[in-house]
Amino acid sequence: MDALLEDVSTWVPAAAATASLSSAVAAAAPADGVDRISALPDNLLRNIVSHLPVRDGARTAALATRWRSLWRSIPLVLRDSDLLLASTFDDEVERAVAFAAVGCILADHPGPFRKVQLTCCEFGTRERSSRSGRDSSPPRACRTSSSSTLTILPRTACYRDSPTTSSAALHSNGSSSPTGRSHSLATTKASPSSIVPSVKILALKVNFSAVNEVNMLPSFLRCFPNVETLHIESSVIGGVTASYHAMFWREVLPVECLKSHVKKIVMHKFRGHRSEFEFLKFIANGARKLQNLLLVLTKEVSASADQVAEVNRQLAIGTCIWTWAAKGFEMMLMGTTSDDADTCSFLKTTSLSVNDPFM
Amino acid sequence: MAAPESGDGNNGAARMVTLISSDNTRFEVEAAAASLSQTLQLTILDGGGGGGDGIPLPNVDSATLSKVLEYCIKHAPAAANGGAPNATAVDRAELERFDNEFVNIDQSVLYSLIMAAHNLEIEGLQSLVAKKVADMIKGKSPMEIRRTLGFPDPTPEEQAEMNAHMLEYGWAYE
């Protein structure tokens, strides 16, 4: 305690001495129309800019020379919903404009990307929407090594429009289409321009009954070679024969992030559907570093003792015949009482203090 | 707000501490309120600021300090509840109303508050005032922002820089 006391007594006056600005600002107390904000140090101006939506933040760079670099020096928080006015949320043209902007923003901001949350842009409309006419190269920020979070929750509609939705999300940087419209996904390779090595936490929604979504999943994961934590919100709408899944996952080539980086996988809204088990089997065989697998059951399944027992039985069989690669691997099955909590709490994903916003 | 030094701070139920502004005004407040400041918290935990001692704050003037303490006193009960997980909606709405009213102030006071909140490390106040300035900037063109913040008219060079930015960052102006 003595040491602590000493620590404080030496520190308080020092802190006081370094910051005589506030009294200077207040003492000057100039009349209106006088620039007082410029008396603030850069870190406080940055704090102000970081509270602005992306467009407003970028505009501050035009204010004066000193502001020029501020927005670019703050980790980017990009929510495409910020690019849309509430009134134009359902306007297709507006959404296309916003989507075009997403590419420009990713190209203009040097990174790191703190959060990139694309939830309302129609990726299927890309061709029509790239009217900005900018021939931008892949964003430099994609090459940064710092950790960031990417949320992509494309609307279901865009899956209908474009089978390459997930991949197209990455095309938003304006580079040429790498994986294109290829459907032979087991062999598709992610090209350098679509790879985002900086993402450590990835969350996505997958409808395991939709052939095109399942087909897209491995290719999509290949675009994020360094993901360590993977959140998948599962849905099973409609039906596909389980044999299709078994066949598909058998033929998929290894996925880099699963092979060498993913340590934790959380499957939200797990139902114990066979298509989900086929995916787990693929993970079991491919994820060499996986330490934790957390399966969060849906409310309906958790409520039924029979269904929980059935999921447990399936898992028990699975864990016997599948080969879990990593030592010390742990699997957990969790029930929920509510499905209201969305995987991706939008408030949380934009909070800079949360380590993993999807937990 | 400015209370004369009483010297018998330990008399009541709540422990009191004395803070001394740069212009030597003494403020007596509950330790719990002053402890919203991370900077002051350790000193107070170690028993500082009581009795005739007082904690000098040479970088905060009395007008700013009284405003800061107004915030701390209002927010102290909720903070004591650990972010008030069990606060009622009414309590939260009341705090929100207070916050909105609280930052409805002159720009000069606002910037002094930003500095004070930063120096005293009062997290909630820091983000409240930063948000307020952000709100003043939101939805405006660079020229409008300059006027709002009281920048002088742009020099031709600054004007040119602004135009260049608008061309380069077209997406920010849609």
UniProtKB/TrEMBL annotation, chain A:
Cited InterPro entries: F-box-like_dom_sf (IPR036047), F-box_dom (IPR001810), F-box_dom-containing (IPR055302), FBD (IPR006566), LRR_FXL15/At3g58940/PEG3-like (IPR055411)
Region span, Disordered: 127-147, 162-189
Upper taxonomic lineage: Eukaryota, Viridiplantae, Streptophyta, Embryophyta, Tracheophyta
Biased composition (Low complexity): 166-177
A Pfam family that the UniProt record links to this protein: FBD
Domain of life: Eukaryota
Stretches with biased composition (Polar residues): 178-189
Protein name as annotated: F-box domain-containing protein
Occurrences of domain F-box (ranges): 34-81
Gene, per the UniProt record: gb05644
Organism this protein belongs to: Eleusine coracana subsp. coracana
Automatic annotation (TrEMBL), chain B:
Keywords: Ubl conjugation pathway
InterPro entries per the UniProt record, alphabetical: SKP1 (IPR016897), SKP1-like (IPR001232), SKP1-like_dim_sf (IPR036296), SKP1/BTB/POZ_sf (IPR011333), Skp1_comp_dimer (IPR016072), Skp1_comp_POZ (IPR016073)
Gene3D superfamilies xref list: Potassium Channel Kv1.1, Chain A (3.30.710.10)
One protein family per Pfam: Skp1_POZ
SMART domains xrefs: Skp1 (SM00512)
Top-rank lineage group of the source organism: Eukaryota
GO BP term (any one): jasmonic acid mediated signaling pathway
Pathway this chain belongs to: Protein modification; protein ubiquitination
Biological function: Involved in ubiquitination and subsequent proteasomal degradation of target proteins. Together with CUL1, RBX1 and a F-box protein, it forms a SCF E3 ubiquitin ligase complex. The functional specificity of this complex depends on the type of F-box protein. In the SCF complex, it serves as an adapter that links the F-box protein to CUL1.
Subunit structure: Part of a SCF (SKP1-cullin-F-box) protein ligase complex.
Family: Belongs to the SKP1 family.
Protein name (database record): SKP1-like protein
Organism this protein belongs to: Eleusine coracana subsp. coracana
